[in-house]
Design goal:
Elements (H helix, E strand, L loop, with lengths): L1 H38 L11 H24 L10 H27 L8 H4 L1 H12 L5 H7 L9 H18 L5 H17 L14 H18 L4 H7 L30 H10 L5 H15 E4 L2 E4 L12 E3 L3 E4 L2 E2 H13 L3 H15 L8 H6 L8 H10 L17 H32 L7 H22 L1 H7 L13
Antiparallel strand pairs: 1-2, 3-4, 4-5
Helix pairs in contact: 1-17, 1-18, 2-5, 2-16, 3-5, 3-7, 3-16, 5-7, 7-8, 7-9, 8-9, 9-11, 11-12, 11-13, 13-14, 13-16, 14-17, 18-19
């Protein structure tokens, strides 16, 4: 019996090496090849939809449907406090971005003369319903109810009400189901009227907190709803520009990050807000949007350390170069992750593919695309407990943007040096991991030939338990976590003494 155990243990290091090669392929070699393929896609430089968007859509959709449905059923949102910003805002925010992305994928499918596969709205029907239900779920309004009280749907509360309008509009556009239209009409008409009555065309998201870029999104959402409601807020949108002129802008003539809704007094602009503003403004005031983008590009664009992107804070201000918050995400050497990620969408909507190309390339190479279709880095940066798919939904939205009407496409752009280096790192890390395991195998063989193996039964049990645990985790929580758990098995059996 002991001889059989020893023989099995002596075979395990070879099996571990094969596992290590498989893990290297899963986490490094195959993602690296995927990055190379995506970077070679000419759609990154044009108005077309990149293949990466289609692949992400197919992988994300069933996961999003399952997660959104389970989250609403669990009722967890109703237990959150107003201080848990990521947990309260991000599930709704991500769901709206997902719905917007599916709309554009559907429109692109309908434009094709030779259509392949099912219509996106048919493939994503369960996710469309689940995402819409999540946004409209009263339990997911608990935090704004705490802010605004029982009349949270009748006054201010701009960010939340704009998300409601956006989700219901997308739902009808994708399903032709009219069941939310009465609610949509009520919210659209009341929010437009309230913005029109406001002193400076601004309203608060939360008491004492006004974010003008959310007001911009609300105005754009109202205009989109007009298309299905038969209402006409053209005159309202023309008047609403008053909230984004003169003294309502910062010293550089850009939309501020925050403002006082009662006085209209603005704070300084920030990159995360400016990218967001440039995603909505082209559909409202195209000329003003072009002006803002040009100033944004002039004052905030940075090419440093081989990395291209939009800064979160102006270089000459006291804003930190290394920083993180719920809106900006990480700020790396001055460049804002959120500003540059949504800078992809803003640039594509404005037809600035010369800027969208390097930003998209960086987004792709740093997303760490796994063979199961998941994007590892966005998953890590999202809120695992409450909004695990926010990052992937936003990337899907960014990659599906097309130039807004009236925007002249401008192509070009250079591949940032960091993209080439980061792509090479995938293969370098994979090779280093395999090499390390190969050297460990050789060392084990040398010692095992002349020294006894300690506690053979225990070591075999630990190794088998690690494999079984990895298999269970893979079934319950996905292949990626299962693969990570396999790392526990690789050190066993321990090297013999000697």
């Amino acid at each position: 019996m002991n001889s059989n155990i020893h023989a099995t243990l002596r075979a395990i290091p070879r099996l571990n090496f094969m596992l290590a090669v498989g893990l290297a392929a899963y986490f490094f070699f195959l993602p690296g090849l995927t990055v190379i393929r995506d970077l070679a896609d000419p759609a990154l430089r044009t108005d077309a939809l990149p293949h990466a968007a289609q692949r992400l859509f197919r992988a994300l959709t069933p996961r999003y449907a399952r997660w959104a449905k389970e989250r609403v059923a669990a009722g967890r949102a109703g237990t959150l406090s107003v201080n848990q910003i990521a947990a309260t805002e991000w599930p709704l925010f991500g769901s709206v971005f997902y719905l917007w992305a599916v709309e554009e994928l559907q429109a692109d499918w309908e434009r094709q003369s030779a259509r392949r596969g099912p219509a996106p709205r048919a493939f994503a029907r369960a996710a469309i319903e689940a995402a819409t239900d999540l946004v409209l779920d009263p339990g997911h309004a608990a935090w704004v109810k705490e802010h605004w009280g029982p009349d949270y749907l009748q006054r201010e509360n701009v960010f939340y009400r704009a998300l409601l309008i956006s989700a219901m509009t997308s739902h009808f556009n994708l399903t032709d189901d009219p069941r939310h239209l009465d609610f949509l009409r009520a919210q659209t008409v009341s929010l437009a009227a309230e913005l029109d009555r406001s002193p400076h065309g601004l309203l608060d998201d939360y008491p004492g907190e006004c974010y003008p870029t959310d007001v911009l999104m609300a105005i754009a959402s109202i205009r989109r709803a007009d298309e299905i409601l038969g209402t006409d807020h053209t005159a309202f949108a023309a008047r609403a520009i008053r909230g984004f002129q003169g003294g309502r802008l910062d010293g550089r003539g850009l939309p501020p990050y925050m403002a006082d809704a009662q006085s209209g007094f603005p704070t300084s602009a920030r990159g995360c807000g400016l990218s967001y503003a440039c995603m909505s403004a082209p559909y409202l005031w195209p000329d003003l949007a072009r002006t803002w983008y040009a100033r944004y590009e002039h004052d905030f664009w940075q090419e440093r350390f081989g990395l291209h992107g939009f800064r979160e804070f102006l270089a000459e201000t006291s804003g930190p170069n290394w920083y993180v918050d719920v809106d900006s995400g990480p700020v790396l050497g001055g460049i804002g992750v959120s500003a540059s990620a949504f800078g992809v969408a803003a640039s594509r909507i404005l037809g600035r593919f010369d800027r969208a190309y390097p930003l998209s390339a960086q987004m792709i190479v740093f997303s760490w695309p796994l063979p199961n279709g998941a994007l590892l880095t966005p998953r890590i940066l999202s809120n695992a407990a409450h909004a695990p798919y926010l990052g992937e939904a936003c990337i899907l939205y960014n990659l599906t943007r097309r130039a807004a009407p009236g925007m002249t496409p401008q192509t070009g752009g250079r591949l940032p040096p960091i993209v080439i280096g980061a792509t090479a790192v995938y293969f370098l890390l994979g090779l280093l991991f395999v090499q390390s395991e190969y050297r460990a195998l050789r060392r084990w063989r040398k010692r095992a030939a002349s020294a006894p193996i300690r506690a053979p039964r225990t070591q075999l049990a630990v190794w088998l338990t690690a494999l079984a645990t990895a298999a269970v985790i893979a079934v319950l929580y996905g292949s990626t976590l299962g693969a990570v758990t396999l790392l526990i098995a690789l050190p066993f059996p321990l090297k013999p003494r000697g």
